[in-house]
Every structure is written in structure tokens, then in C-alpha cells.
Amino acid sequence: MEDEKMEEHTWWKEAVVYQIYPRSFKDSNGDGIGDLRGVIEKLDYLKELGVDVIWMSPCYKSPNDDNGYDISDYRAIMDEFGTMEDFREMLEGIHSRGMKLLMDLVVNHTSDEHQWFVESRSSKDNPYRDYYIWRDPKDGKEPNNWTSYFSGPAWQYDEKTGQYYLHLFSKKQPDLNWENETVRREVYDMMKFWLGIGCDGFRMDVASLYSKTPGLPDGKGTTGLIGHEYYQNGPRIHEFLREMNREVLSHYDIMTVGEMSGVTIDEAIKYAGKKRRELNMVFQFDQDALDHDPDDKWGRRAVPLPELKKVFSDWQIRLEGKAWNSLYWTNHDQPRTVSRWGNDGRYRKESQKMLYTMLMTLQGTPYIYQGEEIGMTNSVFDGIEDFDDVEIHNCWKERVVEGHEDPEALLKAMRFRARDNARTPMQWDDSDNAGFSTGKPWLKINPNYKEINVKEALADPESVFHYMQKLIRMRKENPVAVYGVYKEYQHDNEQLFLYERVLEEEGQKARTMYVVLNFSDHEAEFEKPEEWDGAAKYLIGNMSEAPLENRTLQPYEAAVYLKS
Ligand code: TEU
Ligand code: CA
Q: Would you call 48 a catalytic residue per the annotation?
């Protein structure tokens, strides 16, 4: 009984993860593209921030149709990023500083330039044919009505053999056929290769999509992503992940997180359930679904605070004791946190600090995306030509060029939500190209780099960087921040998010943490919940210290108290 109640302590629950998007992190040789030697240069910086684990977006060989998420060789480094020697040196540098490295595992699909696909498309009886999902045309058209995450049909016709292949993402990202056992073996061998080199785990790209419903039935909807009910959390997905766990994961002390497009809480409890032997945790999308139309990621809507709180609360409460949470505000696929959930003007620093106070005081493993630690914002994109992302250009072609939609309206939506917002180069200092590169950067630098950059943040004791550093330290010193049981207060309050965390462990005094967050750009009246002990001590916050009592909070104020 006792055992069931207590959350087992592991390093990956206590870790704070930092995500690097290598293309945009640091360019060491002036070609305008970030690279592994650039990462090596900045390892001391990451150590200073205090993070434990680095998750690197893909650095494998790739033609970069989707910036590395289209892999043409799983066992080689992308030409632009460096060599295998550079990789080994980087890994060694990470380990010698006491940090760990998570690789991005992209095995729902490969690049169409991967040798497997080159073979596969060459003839119907090629031994690699069945590595991918090929189907005959139906009535001279696509085999079913599924659409791609990146606009248009999820099928591409191939002249050579007169069949279509499935691609849930771009047509240069053909889906692997997970029904084929040989494909699964290949994937497991490749995972062992990277673990053998010393990598410490995987972030698994769209891991909820590997299993497609046999027969590939037509999807039910007529708009948005059609067909997803036949491959999100598909029929054999848990079987595949358990097999992967048995064959590979269980033999190493590593960390795994599955990116689960379309995951529900019930499904997450299966993927990351304590005794399920699948993965350690998942990334969920409920919070990202809030601020747009269900069927159109570009259609923006305002989010009342209780809706946002409900998502976080539900995940905290329902995973408690059953599965471990992951916590993130953004990544390379999302707008910048402060532009989306905070205020990137007058209250940029305050709101960014408040938002990350939340992330570091909930149960789960927190992920910080590069640049968030200095409060980088969404960028400026004048016209469609300023964007790089394949998702944007496909969508533009479908809706504006062919669909004759109003270009200005779509541009406006894209300026806010484009993935490129998170992908603009890191702002290291106020010199040319923000100190990212001596050459022309592959994607336009955010024009605000003269004010927002690492050099400025390191020099300013009140910077987001220094607050983030304090938050990370606070988490390490207070197990209640990691393991405490969550309870929310005053759910209907439209400005404030209030919750406590309680940790009762055998042989130890109970500890309680109270968290007070003002999500609005107005002052807010805080009424202390009756159950909260006013004698609790101020632990950390983004304004001046104040006792735990009824009072007026500043815009975006965050205050955390500890009772022990
Ligand atoms: O993302 C998959 C995913 O479901 C989304 O975040 C997706 O990018 C978004 O909905 C598009 O509108 C992963 C990677 O994180 C992303 O960068 C890749 O493009 C994608 O898989 C394909 O590998
Ligand atoms: Ca470079």
C-alpha cells in the first residue's frame, strides 16, 4: 500500500530538460547554420543555467525538407552540423559536465532520400517495398481520403510503379510500415547504436502514429486532419512500444518521452503508466489545442484562464500516482511562450518569469526550449517569403495560391502561430547577426536582438535568465516541487492560478508549497484560501517578497511559499 502511494524517485523525474534546435543554436563556421561545434562552445552556458538533460532536435543526415525531421541516414550526422567526431566530442562535453543527452527518434517516417525508400520505390518486388505503405489507386485517385498534417492528401502517386505511398507529413517524409517486423528490428538496432555510443535516451517524434488501422479506412471528417482516428493511438501502438521496451529500452538506464499527437489522458496513462513498461512520459497537446479552432490550427481564439487551468489541473490530478507528467510551454513547433500566454511588450520579463514559475512548480519533468531562458519573443515576418517552414509554404499554396483565400488574413494568423517563430536563431549578443553567426543566418534574426540577448541577460541580475537559474535551483532543493501532490484552489478565478503541492514521505516531515500566479496584465485581489497556513515562508517569486495574506498582486506577479 505504502509503496503504491509514494512516487518512486528517479533522475529523470528530477531533471530539468533543455531543448536545442541545432540549426538555430550557434553557428561555429560562418555558413549561417547552427552546428555541433556551436553547441560545444555553449555547454558551459547551459551548465551555468543549471539544466540536467539536453534534448537535441534531429542532427542526423537529412535533405532538410522538414529541418531534420526527414532523415536519410540514421547513423550519420547532417553535413551542415558536422561529423561523428564532433558528435562524440559534444557528448563527452555534456557528460563531463554532469549532463545527459536525449536524441530525437524520428521513426514514424524517413526521408524519401533514405536508402530504404530509394530501394522501396524502385520496384514492386524490391525487398524494401514493404518497408513503406504502398497502395493501388482507388477509382484512379488516392487510396483513401486521409489528409496530411502539412496540407493536401496524405498520399503521393509514384509513376514508376503506379502506386501511392502514405505520408502523414510532407511528401518527402514517407511513413514507415510498422506492421513489418523487419522495419521494427531495424529501428531497434539503430536505437542500440546510439545508446551504445552513450546517449541517455530518446524524445520520440509522433510516437502515437506508428500503428495504422488495417485496411486504412476512409476518415470520418471532411475538414481539418482527416483520418486521424485510424492512426492516432492506433490498434497495435502499445504492443509496438512494449516490444521496443523489451528489446531496447529496458536494458539501459535512460529517459524516454513520446510526443503523442492526439493523446488523451487515458491513453497517456497507458503509454507512461507505472507498470506498463512502455515510456517514461509523454508530451500532450491539450494546452496547445486551446487557442485555435479544432479544425484549423490557424484560426485563433482567446482562452479564458479557467480553461487553461483546467487542462493543467486535469493532467496533474489524473496522472497522480499512475503516470508521470511532462511540462512544457513551447518547442520548435509552437509560438514563443511570452507572445502566446504572456505579454511580450511592457511585461515581457514579468510574464515570462511568472509562466516558468508555474512550469517549475507542477508535478512532472519540465522542458525549457532554447531562448526561453532569456524571454525570446515571436519574430517579425513581412511576407510569405520570410518564412522557411514546409508547413507554411504547403498551406499557403493550398489556401492562397490555389484556394484564393485572403492572403492578408492568413499571413496575420501565420505571423502569430508559425513554427518559424521559435526557430529564429538564438540571440547571443547585440553584435551583427546576434552573435549567432558571422555569415548570413538561414532564417532572419528577430529584430529585437539588440535588447533581448544572452549577453544582456547575464549582465542583468533581474533578468529572466537569472530567475530561471533560481527556479531550477529551487526545484533541486525542494523535492516537494517535483513529487508533491497537486491541489487547485479558486478554479473560477479568471486572473489567478492558485495551487498547493503536498509531499508526505515516510520518516519525513510533510512539506507544503503554495503557488500564487497572476496571469493577467492587471493588478489582482488575492484572497488567501482558508486552508493555507499564513505562516508559510516566501520561497521564490518575481516581485518583492510579501507575506502570504490577502493583498493586491502586481500584473503577472508570481509568489511561491513553503511550509515545513
Ligand atoms: O511534430 C508533430 C506534430 O504533431 C506537431 O507538432 C506538428 O508539427 C504540428 O501539428 C504541425 O502543424 C513532430 C515534430 O516535432 C515536427 O517538427 C515535425 O515536423 C513532425 O513531427 C514530423 O516529423
Ligand atoms: Ca555552421
A: no
Q: What is the pLDDT of residues 417-437, one digit of tens each?
A: 999 999 999 999 999 999 999
9/16 Cα distance (integer angstroms): 14
Closest CA to 91 of 15, 202, 198, 18: 198
Flag whether pLDDT at 37 surpasses 60. Answer: yes
Residue nearest to atom 4 of ligand 1 (CA): 261
The CA 281 to ligand 1 mean position distance, Å, reads: 18
Q: What is the residue with the minimal CA distance to atom 14 of ligand 1?
A: 205
The rounded distance, in Å, linking the Cα atoms of 282 and 328 is 11
139-197 pLDDT, tens digit per residue, is: 999 999 999 999 999 999 999 999 999 999 999 999 999 999 999 999 999 999 999 99
Single-letter code of the amino acid located at 559: A
Smallest CA separation from ligand 1 atom 3, residue: 261
Q: Which of 30-48 are b and which e, b meaning 16 or more Cβ less than 10 Å from the residue's Cβ?
A: eebbbbbbbbbbbbeebbe
Q: What span, in angstroms and rounded, lies between the C-alpha atoms of 350 and 543?
A: 8
Q: Is 69 in the pocket of ligand 1 (CB under 6 A)?
A: yes
Burial of 558 (0-12, 13-18, 19+ CB in 10 A): buried
Q: Which ligand is nearest to the CA of 258?
A: 1
Could you count the other beta carbons within 10 Å of the beta carbon of residue 320? Answer: 14
Q: Is 205 a catalytic residue?
A: yes
Give me the sheet containing 163-166, strands edge to edge: 134-135, 163-166, 155-158
| The predicted structure's pLDDT at residue 1 | 37
Helix (H) or strand (E) holding 238: helix 237-247
Give the span between the Cα atoms of 523 and 19, in whole angstroms: 33
Q: What separation in Å is there between the alpha carbon of 25 and the centre of ligand 2?
A: 10
Interhelix angle 181-197/84-96, rounded to 10 degrees, is 60
For all residues of the chain together, what is the average pLDDT?
A: 97
Q: Which letter does DSSP use for residue 432 in this model?
A: G
Residues near ion ligand 2 (Cβ under 5 Å): 27, 29, 31, 33, 35
Q: Is 106 in the pocket of ligand 1 (CB under 6 A)?
A: yes
- pLDDT interval class at 2 (50, 70, 90): very low
| Whether 336 contacts 378, CB under 8 Å | yes
The predicted-structure confidence for 440-463, as pLDDT tens digits, reads as follows 999 999 999 999 999 999 999 999
